[in-house]
Amino acid sequence: MDQERTDIDLAALPERAQRALAGLDLAGVGLEIGPSFNPIAPRSAGFDVRILDHADRADLIGKYREVGLSPAELDRIEEVDFVWRSGPVHEAVTSGERFNYIVAAHVIEHVTDIVALLDTAQRLLEPGGQLSLIVPDKRYCFDRMRPVTTVGQVVEAHLDPDLFHGPAPFIDTHLYTVRRFATGNTWDAHSGTDLAIPPCEWATVRDTINRVHQADEYIDIHRWVFTPASLELLIRDLRALGYTDMEIVEITPTDSYEFFARLAVRPRTEATDRDDAVNSPERWQLLQQIEREQATVALAAEVAAAAARDELAAHLQDVTVAFRAAIEERDALRSANAELLEQLAEVTSSASWRATAPLRHAKSLVKRDEGD
Q1: Which of 98, 252, 350, 372 has the fewest CB atoms within 10 Å distance of its CB?
Q2: Where are the alpha helices (DSSP H) in 113-225?
Q3: With bands split at pLDDT 50, 70 and 90, how would you rate the model's confidence at 181?
Q4: 17 with 42: CB under 8 angstroms?
C-alpha cells in the first residue's frame, strides 16, 4: 500500500496537506472527518475521498457564512457524504465502506471519547490502512498552561460515556487559556513570548459552568491537550490496557503549532507486547520526553524574554547616549549664546557705538521714507 494515485499532484497541495498525507495509500479510497472549509484531501485535487462532518454542505456554508468566511473559503466546502451528530462515528458511515486511509485534522482534541474515535478507525480501515491525525501542540496555542491529557482521564470518559462535554474542559479553558499579544491563539517556538491571561470575570466562569451542566446539546471545546510525546504515550498506554489495537507508526516534530501522527491497526499478541510493562524503558523515555518538551518551551520563553530584555536595555542605552549628547549640545549652545550676548553688550556700550548712533538713526529714517 505504498503507491499513490498517479493523477494527484501532491506537490501542488499546501505543505500541511503534504505532511498529513505522507505515507498513506492514496491510490485507494479515503475518509476525511470534519474537514469543513479546509479539506486536507479535496476531491477537487483528484482524491477519491468521502466526507464525514457534523452537518451537510448547505448547513456548513450557512454556519461559516455567519462567522464571516469569504466566498472563496465557502467554495472549498465539499459535499458531505455522511452526517454525524451523535453516537458511534462508524455508524454514520451507512454505505458500509472501508477505507485505505482516514484523515482527521484537529478532531481528536474535540471528541468526547478518544477510545471510541480509535475504535471507529479500526472498524473503518482496510487491512494495512492508516489514520492520519493533525493535532495542535498545546505548547504553542492557547492551551499552553493546561496539563497534558492523561490515560486515566481518557479511560474514565470511555467507561462513563456522555454525548456532550462536561464543565471540566470549559472551566480549564477559562482559567488556563493564554493569548499572545492579548489576541493571538497560536504561535511557534520562536514567537511564544508576550503571553498573558485574557480578561475574564469569575461570574463568567460560573455562568459557563451552569450553562454547560444544563445543556442538552454538544458545545465545542478543546477537551484534550497534547504534545507529541504525550499523545504517543497515551496511545501506547491505551493499547497496553486493551482499549485499542491502534499503534503509532510515526509522529513528526511540531511544525508551527501542529504535529502530525499516523496510526495503524496492529492486534495485540503476547509475543508482540510481552515487554510492554508499566516500568518499561520505552514508557520511562516518553515520560521524560514529555517533561523535556515542556521544559524546552519554558526555557525558550525565558531565552526569548531575556533577548527582549537585552534588546530593550540596548535601546535604553542608545537613548541615554543620545540624551546625554543632546544635553551637551544644549549646554554648548547656551555657552555660545552667552558669549555672543557678552560681545554684543561690549559693542553697544563702546564709545564708537554711541558716537555713530545719529548716523544709524538717520539711516533708519531714510529707509522708512524709501518704503513710503
Answers
A1: 372
A2: 114-124, 151-159, 167-176, 202-214
A3: confident
A4: no
pLDDT at 1: 40
Per the listing, cell 481518557 goes with 154
With both helix axes pointing from N to C terminus, report the angle between 151-159 and 114-124 in degrees, rounded to the nearest 10. 80
Distances (CA, A) of 295 to 259, 283, 307: 18, 18, 18
Q: Pick left, alpha or beta for residue 169 (phi over 0 → left; psi -120 to 50 → alpha; otherwise beta).
A: alpha
Residue 372 pLDDT exceeds 80: no
Backbone angles phi, psi at 195, to 5 degrees: -90, 150
- SS3 of 280-346: CHHHHHHHHHHHHHHHHHHHHHHHHHHHHHHHHHHHHHHHHHHHHHHHHHHHHHHHHHHHHHHHHHH
Rounded distance, CA 78 to CA 40, Å? 11
pLDDT at 305: 67
- CB contact at 8 A, 80 and 52: yes
Q: How far apart are CA 260 and CA 240, in angstroms?
A: 22
Whether the pLDDT of residue 362 is over 80: the answer is no
| Distance set, CA 188 to CA 16, 20, 251, 291, 292 (Å) | 15, 19, 18, 19, 17
Q: Where are the beta strands (DSSP E) in 10-148?
A: 30-33, 49-53, 82-83, 99-105, 125-136
Select the more confidently predicted residue: 35 or 357: 35
* Residue 339 predicted with pLDDT over 90: no
Rounded CA Rg of the chain? 34
